[in-house]
Amino acid sequence: MSRPGTSEEQARNEDAARAPADGPWTLRDYALIADGERGALVDPRGGIVWLCAPAWHDGAVFSGLLGGPGRYRVRPADRWNVWGGYYEDGTLIRVSRWVTADGIVSCREALAVPADTGRVVLLRQIRAVRGDALVDVGLDVRAGYGQHPMTDVRQDGGPWRARSGPLHVRWSGAADARPDADGGLRTRLRLPEGGVHDLVLEIATQQRSDLLDPRALWRATERWWRSAVPDCADTAAPRDTRMAYAVLNGLTSAAGGMVAAATTSLPERADTGRDYDYRYAWVRDQCYAGIEVAAHGPHPLLDRAVRFVTDRLLADGAELRPAYTVDGEPLPPERELPFAGYPGGGDRTGNRAGRQFRLDVFGEVLQLFAAAARHGVLDSRTVKAATVAADAIAERWGAPEAGLWELEERWWTHSRLCCVVGLRDLSRQLGATAPAGWTRLADRILAGTRSRCLHTDGYWQRAADDTGPEAALLLPLARGAVPPTDPSLALTRSQVVRRLAVDGHVYRFRHGEEPLGDAEGAFLLCGFTMALAAHAQDLHTEAARWFERTRAACGSAGLFAEEYDVAQRQLRGNLPQGFVHALLLECSARFGQAPKSVPSAGW
Fold first, then answer.
1. Over the stretch 333-375, which tens digit does the pLDDT of each residue have?
2. Which CA distances in Å does 272 have to 27, 335, 405, 470?
């Protein structure tokens, strides 16, 4: 029934925009396909439930993950089926698979690469693996988080064409599709046993007329992934390490920025308000990715991280923001979307982190540049950026700041130790060309931090005014903030094990008097950090135990979220979380090497 003052078509569009998507799945069940410029989440039913276009931070064209409109489904007509799937090794080419009452159907899917910043091309290849296949296909592109239904839908003897707000849509392989009541397109495909059918969806900022050749697009995509991901046979967990490389490549733009995760508003804990938009490039995460890749060897991901961070430092200096869009712009302000949101979470876009000052990122930047110097990829422009970072540390290390976790401004221990590591490590790599004052500054920061933040029991406490343990401290300690034989490393790690670890998983810190697990899940980053700290102490068996326990906390697709609910064995927060995959990569690279000391900050 139409509403007063609106046309029937407008009313239908409004109803479709409010219509609930298919029910959500637990986070462990989703898979990711990505091309560096954007990423799509695929659910077990064959639905693309999240895709922003043309870029990561733009509006979603498929919003089902948050209960919004827009869909692209490929699923067996027989709903009585069991789902599964896998990634082709070392790629983000996903194969969804369903066993039905009468056969097996698969759908191979990927975002075509090399990527175009103004165009996303989504490839889907349906195969009747065993028995004949009857497959339902539906497409409804709704740009701008559902604001723009498809219009001007037409088929002029070739692919379907349409508009969705400012975006142009082309869809090939669905010649028999017909418009449905919601304004989308639907068809049913029949494939004989062994039959293959290709679908190619293009969503672009400009109308295109080039041929959408699925065979050529698949060949180029396969070739790109072969060149992007190394063999990793020299690591402790080669297949998972290749997966980590694939995820990091999929999250990293050609401009160099790597998004923290592909999604927004997935809850860290139900109904607590801690659900954020992670579709931006955090300088911290960028540095982690570069440093961890460098632990395995020189790789284009290291070059991209160095380039992105160098550009931001030279542009913003001491006012470096914690996070940017992947193309280096400031973050948009937070706003709410008109969706139900993922259960227990919100429905927000934008992020306030861009307005905070964090000291730790300057230390992490210097560590990144030192890693680049070890591989001979540090140029004069980046050395200039390093001087900017060191000057910012010298000016502001004594003042309170937001710290690693972007909380209230305090005298955080972790930030100071990161700066100590970065100043010493880069001084060591630059040798005689390093400013003499950097090492003296590192000594001064360490002495000041030791006097304020080393607990009387000998461990490093969380902040000058907080005597509690902090798992994140293990990373700068493992990287050489103090000598490996310094008792504070062992005592700090012991405190974290005793007070922040449960069943082999590690939490960040305590939230007041709340039991661990009530306020938030275990932080998978901290689990891998614990493994690195044990390795730095030459406790290789213990390091392996922490590593294996943490790397098991992934979803069925092999993706890690930020947190892990130990009691329910579920993923929590946005996914996939880039820095978790990066820390897995470093652990695997280091543990696969012959036993030797971890590169230190010059002790």
1. 999 999 999 999 988 999 988 778 999 999 999 999 999 999 9
2. 18, 17, 17, 22
406-428 residue pLDDT tens: 999 999 999 999 999 999 999 99
Rounded to whole angstroms, the Cα distance separating 551 from 547 reads 6
Is residue 293 within 8 Å of 590, Cβ to Cβ? no
**For residues 169 and 140, is the Cβ–Cβ distance under 8 A?**
no
Pairing between β-strand 196-204 and β-strand 281-282 as defined by DSSP bridges = unpaired
Give pLDDT tens digits for 208-251: 989 999 999 999 999 999 999 999 999 999 999 999 999 999 99
Burial category of 147 from C-beta neighbours within 10 Å (exposed 0-12, middle 13-18, buried 19 and up): middle
pTM: 0.94
Phi, psi of 226 (to 5 degrees): -60, -35
The stretches of 229-316 forming alpha helices (DSSP H) are: 238-251, 283-294, 300-316
Q: What letter represents residue 282's amino acid?
A: W
Distances (CA, A) of 198 to 74, 106, 125, 127: 11, 12, 4, 9
Cα 108 to its chain centre, rounded Å, is 22
Average pLDDT over the chain reads: 93
Q: Under 8 Å CB-to-CB from 443, ≥6 apart: which residues?
A: none
